[in-house]
Amino acid sequence: MFKIKTYNSIAPKGLQVFENNSYMLNESDNPDGILLRSFNLHDESIAQSVKAIARAGVGVNNIPVKELSDQGVVVFNTPGANANAVKELVLLSLFVSSRNFLPAIEWTNTLKIDNSTSIPSQVESGKKQFVGNEIRGKRFGVIGVGAIGVLVANDALALGMDVVAYDPFISVNTAWQLSSNVQRAHNMDEIFSTCDYITLHVPLTDKTRNIIDEAAIGKMKTGVRLLNFSRAELVNVEHLQDALEKEKISNYITDFPTEKLLKMKNVITIPHLGASTVEAEENCAFMAASTLKQYLETGNIQHSVNFPNVYLPFTRLSRVTVAHKNIPNMVGQITAVLAQYEMNIANMLNSSKDLWAYTIIDLDSKAEHKDSIIQKLLTIDGIKKVRIIENER
Ligand SMILES: NC(=O)c1ccc[n+]([C@@H]2O[C@H](COP(=O)([O-])OP(=O)(O)OC[C@H]3O[C@@H](n4cnc5c(N)ncnc54)[C@H](O)[C@@H]3O)[C@@H](O)[C@H]2O)c1
Ligand SMILES: O=C(O)CC[C@@H](O)C(=O)O
């Protein structure tokens, strides 16, 4: 029996993944797994019982990934599952930033029905204050070409924009999807200095925090429009305010309202709706729940942000999984312990990702002395979490 604790509202399609006798949902006491969206886990104490955490979404800056890795807790996200939803809102925002239609609609709603001037006459005489721009032919810079950035770049081309993209870490998969008509920027300055519109699609990390600051803004064209559907902290808000006041940036559209932004002119804030479509919520919830279930039941890892992806069909009688540091001689020490218990290894797999590694060892017997094997393995320096899973099938 596995206990799953959930935070935020998770689409039923995801929760249904746990609808069987092996799971108890919404369990706060000693959960095995956590399923969440944007809830801030940094301020929560996480029970020792937790083996994995799945984020129904992409950004994991709400999760203390570093600390959890050190406890051998696997963190999953849902790459690409909400990318189309975000892309559609970004495309909408390109038009919103260009055509003044939000203030125009507000103005139309204030028109008074009076007998001397008809509404159509008021409209025709007042509309000149809302003249906008077209996006066709304008230069559009995409910073971060991952699941969202690639869709935004390709569709902006289809809308007639001149698209230039920057991503020094672009994945091979994404590069295959990117239209060859998207130009490659070799550094961010190429985007800053030439673009009429700039959109941010990078994760929030120590390296990307404040990538839009005074220095970056200084290089931008006067009147540039800035879109941020990634995270608030990518943009230095004081420097942004100054640039908006000086009309260096004409407007800023973001999915991340803050107290300061709400008071600023020429800022349009959206209440974090990027992934809020029925389709994206279902995709994310289903993917997150499925990867969490797979990990709890088999120890296989897919879509993890801190441990390597590993898959070994679970066909033998039992399985030992070990989350450990990526340092020499771990496998040798693990197998030496199993040998002490006269356990014969039927199959094994070891893989690493940056500082962390993961080993699966399959056995042709049910593991006896489970607790003492686990305790012994945990005394090895570098081993963070050990599980022994019986094959129930
Ligand atoms: N508004 C929303 O509701 C919403 C929804 C989904 C994602 N997001 C945010 O958008 C971000 C991107 O999402 P995604 O699905 O495209 O993620 P992704 O991981 O597929 O793509 C991120 C891309 O950024 C690139 N990158 C990383 N550091 C970079 C740097 N310094 N300069 C340039 N490129 C860099 C990576 O190489 C990668 O290609 C997420 O991290 C999340 O913060 C927001
Ligand atoms: O859960 C959401 O609504 C937003 C998720 C989004 O910020 C993400 O990073 O995927």
Automatic annotation (TrEMBL):
Ranges of residues in domain ACT: 319-391
Pathway annotation: Amino-acid biosynthesis; L-serine biosynthesis; L-serine from 3-phospho-D-glycerate: step 1/3
GO MF assignments: NAD binding; phosphoglycerate dehydrogenase activity
Keywords linked to the UniProt accession: Oxidoreductase
Catalytic activity reported: (2R)-3-phosphoglycerate + NAD(+) = 3-phosphooxypyruvate + NADH + H(+); (R)-2-hydroxyglutarate + NAD(+) = 2-oxoglutarate + NADH + H(+)
The protein's Enzyme Commission number: 1.1.1.399, 1.1.1.95
Stated role: Catalyzes the reversible oxidation of 3-phospho-D-glycerate to 3-phosphonooxypyruvate, the first step of the phosphorylated L-serine biosynthesis pathway. Also catalyzes the reversible oxidation of 2-hydroxyglutarate to 2-oxoglutarate.
Family: Belongs to the D-isomer specific 2-hydroxyacid dehydrogenase family.
Name recorded for this polypeptide: D-3-phosphoglycerate dehydrogenase
Organism from which the protein derives: Sutcliffiella cohnii
The organism's taxonomic lineage, starting at the top: Bacteria, Bacillati, Bacillota, Bacilli, Bacillales
